[in-house]
Amino acid sequence: MNIKALLKSLRLRKFATGLLLLQLSLTIGLMVNTVILTTSAIDKLNNPLGFDVENLIVVDHIPTSGAFRDPSYFRSIAEQDLAKISALDGVVSASHYNQLPIQRGGWNGNLQAADFPDDGVLEKYLRYVPQFYASANALENLGVEIIRGRALNASDDITKDYYTPGKRDDIEQNIVLTESVAKAVFPNKPALGELTNNGRVVGIAKDFSITPGHPGNAKYYGMFGNFLFSQPDREQHYIVRVEPGQLAHVKAQLADTILSVQAERDILRVQSMADRLSQFYSKDTGLASLFGILSLLMVGVTVVSSFAHAHFHVTQQRKFIGIRRALGARKQDIMIYVFSENWLMSLLSSILGIGAAVALNIGLSQVITIDKPDILLYCLSVLVIFVSGSLATWLPAYKTTKISPVIATRTL
Amino acid sequence: MEMFNYYLKLSLRNLSRNRLFFSLMITTLAVGVGVFLANIAIIKSMSADPLPHKSDKVFNISLNIWPNANPSPELLPIMRYDDAMHILKNEVATHTMVHYQTQVYTREVGAASVTSYQAKVRATTPGFFPLTSAPFAYGGVWQGDHAKQVVIGDSLNQQIFGGGNSVGKLIEVDGKPLEIVGVLKPWHLKPLFYHPGHRQAFSATDDLFAPIETALDNEWAINVQSLSTERINSVSDNRGKNAFFIHAFVQLDSQAQINEMKNYLENYSQMRKDGGDFLRETDNRLLDVNQWLELNKVVDKQMLAFGLATSLFLAVCIFNASSLLLARYHSARFETGLRRAVGARISDIFYQGLVESTLVGIFCAILALVFGWLFLQLSLSLFPKLENTSDIDGSLIAIGIAIALATSFISMIYPLLKACHAQLSTTLK
Predict the structure, then answer these.
(1) Does residue A178 share a domain with residue A237?
(2) What pLDDT score does A410 carry?
(3) Are B279 and B418 in a shared domain?
(4) Tell me: the pLDDT tens digits for B69-100?
(5) Domain around B393
(6) Chain mean position to CA B154
(7) Are residue B291 and residue B345 in the same domain, yes or no?
(8) Which stretches in chain A have pLDDT values below 50?
(9) For residue B267, what is the enclosing H or E element?
């Protein structure tokens, strides 16, 4: 194969060749970044969260009646709800929560040692530690293990004191911290038994993902207290843990079960925790899907261009191909000649594609978080371009083999 | 005109003679324009000016006051009750309003059905309505800070009363009656500039508007953003405490008013500092509507990223069309040569090519609008939260047509020039 001759032939069609090279390299660039976005979205969805996501159902609801402004009524209904839900077939346990894991925003507050100096500067994410006020079994219900100390129990419930006039200011609640936040608040000593601005630490729970958007260990920061906050204008949350395989069966009954206790509630959502996770990352998966569709379209357009380029070339060079055939070139020689031109184009574009992939990655990183391109993804994209280009060139190449050597004599 | 008709006929004949070729070319170009257009539909709506007649005169206020030592320099968009009340007292602004967001369930007093309707509530002050140009269909604003009166939006009016003039009717919240004193017309505000944070920029306007004092008296919770540095025992307990939850906006029609307002805020900060509060390193901030929306990053980052990709895709489609056209003109060079030989000038060939490119552009525009709509539906199904962000209006259709014509022209220009400048002698030989 004469590379020089091929390059010379391509140079004769500078404009068309240049356009195709640009197309191929931009397609490689887009494909590399699409795969990065897709793998990143898949990684996020498949990252172990540290709790029993597969067997949990979340119910979000809100009272519609003023009767719920009475904290004791609010509490009585919540207790009846949980008792009735727990009695359903297939339910392992159920708890109430003021907020849910896998969240953005939420109910956060600063968490610091009780003796933290007034003018001290707290680490950023310790100023926004998710504060969970929930049932005593809230962590067990999620499938989170207590690794030191003890779990919360009924004696830790501060609800009654909180709503008893005059008692609120004297409450010193018992809390459980996740391992990471305990280490961050008490870096030089064990947190167990220590007093924080939010209560005394009686237990340390294994880390689990609470705020997945936070960096490093801050995503595991969380504080748990046993308290039912009666705020009827806000969404209330129940999490129901079910036996494996019972999710759909239990989910279908939850709304009616809750409304059968007290009908004046608006059931906003009943969804599995897995669905909540998918929804949490819906923007990432949505963007990856859009990029995927665009990449497919781009490959399609590039195939059309490769086909047109080869076809155009063959039409233009019918006479010369005829001469080559007359001079003894075999059909497969001619076929390889047409293919090799496409392969050469793919090779050149794969070099330009490095620049396109990096430039697009830099451009995208200005607006979204995206990983850096890696060599494997690049090779994969180049392979797609080689294969699709070869397929697009096959028909013009095959037609070329049908050019008779007689053509050479006809036009001379 | 006669020549134009002739060229048009010629172009149509060309298109019909090379049906497969032109349909391939028009389709790829239309897909590129359509995808680009769908993206523009979303970004255009997200970056729209919600108050075009006075967005440079309406300002958000962020104060630099903090109750504890060593505050971070970053300003909060929310302020305390006392701060908000002080801002309301100003005599500088044309209109001033403060607000917080809450939510209630409501129904008509004495309704046979027990069904209550969820209502997003803006607990605010009378200045809200002239400042946001909220359109009243009936009635007006409440009288008195603690009045048990409300203004309702069109959709809540439709839900509870089936529409019409509901002024004077009573609704109840938690069993307490509230009199309707005003009903708004259907009101679309995109983005919702007075509360764009917390993924609310493209939410519908509120269902119910109530005096802020009445909302606090009734313990209507702050359900979006609040922050406190001390224990707050109830919603009404937020008054006078270090609880940050109120947003403030002013309308300042002249530079003199802006300067005066800056002084007013500065004096207030100093007064609070003298009273024991601390000031952040950053100055008090007045941002007009568009600056405020920019700060809140209302344009979705994912859509901007996708915008970059769709631009590249459009470029690839143009390259593809151009490449196809080059092949087409090359194969038609004998015909072009013949026309030149029988007397056609280069300008005539170019003019005919231009007519053909316009015709291709028109077909491409029609197809691009269809692809654009389809791709928009696809984008919205993948990003359900963007449902309220895209409007296909006249201006967008005009943009689509213009892009299709322009891309068709760009694709055609080089191949056409090449065809025009082909050596006559070579072609004829």
Answers:
(1) yes
(2) 62
(3) no
(4) 878 888 999 999 999 999 999 999 999 999 99
(5) 2-47+300-428
(6) 21
(7) no
(8) 412
(9) helix B255-274
Instruction: Give the pLDDT of residue B428.
Output: 59
Nearest CB neighbour to A64, from listed B28, B105, B418: B105
**Residues B211 and B122: beta-carbon distance below 8 Å:** no
Are the CB atoms for B211 and B123 separated by under 8 Å? yes
Q: Which residue has the tokens 């994969």?
A: A380
Chain B CA closest to residue A69: B174
Provide the shortest C-alpha distance from residue B53 to chain A (in Å).
30
Answer whether A287 sits within 8 Å of B306, measured CB to CB: yes
pLDDT, residue B179, reads: 96
Domain count of the fold of chain A: 2
Residues of B in contact with A69 (CB under 8 A): 174, 219
Quick one: A241 and A268 in the same domain?
yes
What tokens appear for A348 in the block? 């050149």
My answer on whether A16 and A73 are in the same domain is: no
**Domain stops at, among B246, B272, B295:** B295
Query: How many structural domains is chain B composed of?
Result: 2
Higher pLDDT, A243 or B5: A243
Tell if the CB–CB gap between B316 and A298 is shorter than 8 Å.
Answer: yes
Q: Among the listed ranges A288-297, B11-20, B22-31, B257-266, which one has the minimum average pLDDT value?
A: B11-20
pLDDT tens digits, residue range A36-73? 998 888 888 888 889 999 999 999 999 988 889 899 99
Work out the minimum CA distance from B337 to partner chain A, whole angstroms: 17
Query: Rounded to two decimals, what is the model's pTM?
Result: 0.80
The pLDDT score that the predictor gives to residue A412 is 45
Query: B297: Cβ–Cβ under 8 A, 6 or more apart, which residues?
Result: none
DSSP E strands: which ranges in A98-198? 108-109, 129-134, 146-149, 174-178, 195-196
Note the pLDDT tens digit of each residue in B152-172: 999 999 999 999 999 999 999
- Interchain contact, A168 vs B116, CB within 8 Å: no
Are residues B265 and B287 both part of a single domain? yes
Domain end call among A251, A280, A309: A280
- Tell whether A124 and A224 lie within a shared domain: yes
Q: Assess whether A317 and A381 both reside in one domain.
A: yes
Q: What is the pLDDT of residue B216?
A: 95
- The whole domain housing A10 covers 3-45+282-409
CB-count burial class (<10 Å; 0-12, 13-18, 19+) for A26: buried
Domain assignment present for residue B52? The answer is: no
Question: ipTM of this complex > 0.90?
Answer: no
In angstroms, the separation between the Cα of residue B272 and the nearest Cα of chain A is 19
Q: Which of A224, A257, A280 is the last residue of a domain?
A: A280
Q: Which residue has the tokens 């239990």?
A: A250
pLDDT tens, residue by residue, B41-59: 888 888 889 999 999 999 9
Query: What is the rounded distance in angstroms from the CA atom of residue B253 to the CA atom of residue B271?
Result: 26
In contact, B251 and B94? CB cutoff 8 Å: yes
CB B306 to CB A291 under 8 A? yes
| B174 interaction partners in chain A (CB closer than 8 Å) | 65-66, 69
pLDDT band at B239 (very low <50, low <70, confident <90, very high): very high
- Within 10 Å of residue B2's Cβ, how many Cβ atoms? 6
Same domain, A289 and A274: no
Closest CA to A144 of A112, A174, A173, A176: A176
Do A218 and A326 lie in one domain? The reply is no
On whether both B141 and B235 belong to a single domain, the answer is yes
User: Does residue A274 sit in the same domain as residue A288?
Assistant: no
Given this model, what pLDDT does residue B429 score?
Answer: 58
From chain B, pick out residues whose CB is under 8 angstroms from the CB of A33: 309
DSSP 3-state assignment of A131? Answer: strand
Taking CA atoms, A405 is separated from A319, A328, A402, B385, in Å, by: 9, 9, 9, 64
Q: Are B110 and B194 part of one and the same domain?
A: yes
* Number of CB pairs, chain A paired with chain B, less than 8 A apart: 149
Say what the pLDDT of residue B426 is.
61
